Amino acid sequence: MKQPIPAFLYPLTGVAALASLASCAGEKETAKQYNIVYIMTDDHTAQMMSCYGSPIETPNLDRIANEGVLFTNSFVANSLSGPSRACMLTGKHSHANGFTDNSTCVFDGSQQTMPKLLRQAGYQTALIGKWHLISLPTGFDHWEILPGQGDYYNPSFITMENDTVRKEGYVTNLVTDMSIDWMENQRDKSKPFCIFIHHKAVHRNWLPELKYLSLYEDKTFPLPDNFYDDYEGRPAAAAQEMNIWKDMDIIYDTKMWRADKKTPLKGTYEAMVGRLSPEDRKVYDDFYQPIIDEFYKKNPQGKDLAEWKYQRYMRDYAKVVKTLDDNVGRVLDYLKEAGLLENTLVVYASDQGFYMGEHGWFDKRFMYEESMHTPLIMRLPEGFKAKGEIPQMVQNIDYAPTFLDLAGAPIPEDMQGVSLLPLLKGEQPADWRKSLYYHFYEYPAEHMVKRHYGVRTERYKLIHFYNDIDEWELYDLQEDPHEMNNLYGKPGYEQITKELHAELTRLQTQYNDPIEEKLKAEKENKTQK
After folding, report:
1. 1 pLDDT band (50/70/90 cuts)?
2. What's the 3-state SS for 215-234?
């Protein structure tokens, strides 16, 4: 039975149903060492990809989906940039790989990672772009990374020689230039390769490429139905600081700079746009100044201000996506022209989903669908027959074992993810997972999203918010896809609640996450005192 795109997304158009065809290539063929091109963006959500039904067009991303597969139930284990990257590299949940949050952690580069294992299997590996794991990369033959979040305009890169080199241009174009140059001119062409093309886009604060400044200015984006969510029955949701209306910085996020106005992030914004050359800065200012003048003249308040901010946010985000999509096309065109396309797995993913006004929010972090869900599309090498939608639940801890499996390398027993290779062959494993585990740690911190963990099944989701709060939430995703009605403790849900608690305990035991035991011990200590 065909599985629909998750209901919180726009209706899917233009992607065929999954063809349940077994690979005719056979075991011998799939043992071949295919190249892997992994393109990962930051905060690019499925709601802003036309292959997932977005109101903006992303034709090059659609090429991957239309020529390959689109995962309708793709999720992350911890919706935050650094932790998500660590999960991808190690195939392990955050508590197991040691990088639980962006604020306090440094990635242990001495541990086992998928790139190191690919090198042992004869691959050349490279990573270019955003790293965001504090320590320097290990396990790569070549790397050039952005310091921290990096800059959109004329960014600096840290090289393997530990030099920091400023490059002129727009960051998405530069990351692609450098990636294509490595594939064409720097690698050993006698070996298979795996390159990680890690973009800064589409991270806050959504600074567009100058040639696209005017794009989407005539478009009015529809307001989500729950934009004015009152968070009734969801105290953790009410406590966040990621509301477009209340928390979006008018200068940093919407670019309404004026000398006499002060905001918490004004200085950061000035440093970012200050990287532009005088000529480019004039182009930038000439575009924004009329918008700035009109904004302060009208001085919108209340809901008028909230909806004005939303439109600016959506337009700038969409502009950054446009350059991103252009560069995905450049990579696909290069692979085709170089004769590599049919022998290469091309993967496009984001480090997590993002809120585009749902619940009134921007950012991510929560276990709710928009941020736990992440886009995942793949163009498969010749011989793999899966096509269209893949409905099975997958997670970013699955990428590492998948790449190793594709390379014919052994998958370590301590990796917690599972290989997606059977799905890419068109198989329908009867024992595929029926639930996913999630754990978010970064609190107190930016946006003030409470710590929480939970379990998601095909229909239900159980979440426990903890630390300075003790609240449970239960959602029926079939009846309430936007997660507005917390059913925990309500009559009639006793049995499913019991089952979900048992499944949560099973997953925590399977993945060896001791959080519930720790919370129980803390509670007992408080009681004794």
Report:
1. very low
2. CCCCCCCCCCCCCCCCCCCC
Instruction: Decide: 220 and 354 in contact? Cβ < 8 Å.
Output: no
Q: Quick check: 392 and 70 in contact, CB under 8 A? A: no
Cis preceding linkage at 205, omega within 30:
yes
Asked if 352 and 374 count as a contact pair (C-beta separation under 8 A), the reply is yes
Mean pLDDT score of the chain: 94
Greatest CA span in the chain, whole angstroms? 70
Taking 3-state DSSP, the helix, strand and coil percentages for the chain, each rounded to the nearest 5, stand at 35, 15, 50
Please state, in angstroms and rounded to a whole number, the distance separating the CA atoms of residues 231 and 245: 15
Residue 426's contacts (CB-CB under 8 Å, 6 or more residues apart) are 18, 19, 20, 21, 22, 23, 384, 385, 386, 387
Phi, psi of 157 (to 5 degrees): -130, 145
Range with lowest mean pLDDT among 29-38, 70-79, 351-360, 392-401: 29-38
How distant is the alpha carbon of residue 21 from its chain centre? 29
How far is residue 52's CA from residue 11's CA, in Å, rounded to a whole number? 7
Q: Are 316 and 208 in contact (CB under 8 A)?
A: yes
The answer, yes or no, to whether residue 24 has pLDDT greater than 50, is no
Beta-strand runs (E) in 343-419: 344-350, 376-379, 388-390, 394-395
- What confidence tens digit (pLDDT) does each residue in 141-165 have? 999 999 999 999 999 999 999 899 9
Task: State the Cα–Cα distance between residues 243 and 253, nearest whole angstrom.
Answer: 12
Mean of pLDDT values over 214-237: 98
Helices (H), ranges, 338-398? 369-372
Query: What is the CB neighbour count within 10 angstroms for residue 235?
Result: 14
Helix (H) or strand (E) holding 497: helix 494-510
By the 10 Å C-beta count (0-12 exposed, 13-18 middle, 19+ buried), 236 is classed as buried
- b/e 364-392 (16+ beta carbons within 10 angstroms → b): bbbbbbbbbbbbbbbbbbebbbbbbbbbb
Can you give the C-alpha Rg of the chain in angstroms? 23
| 3-class state of residue 328 by DSSP | helix
311: exposed, middle or buried (Cβ count in 10 Å: 0-12, 13-18, 19+): middle
- DSSP secondary structure string for all residues of 78-112: S-SHHHHHHHHHHTS-HHHHS---TTT----TTS-
Q: Do the Cβ atoms of 352 and 369 come closer than 8 Å?
A: no
Instruction: Using CB atoms within 10 Å of the CB of residue 294, give its burial: 0 to 12 exposed, 13 to 18 middle, 19+ buried.
Output: exposed
The C-alpha angle 229, 234, 240, rounded to 5 degrees, equals 70
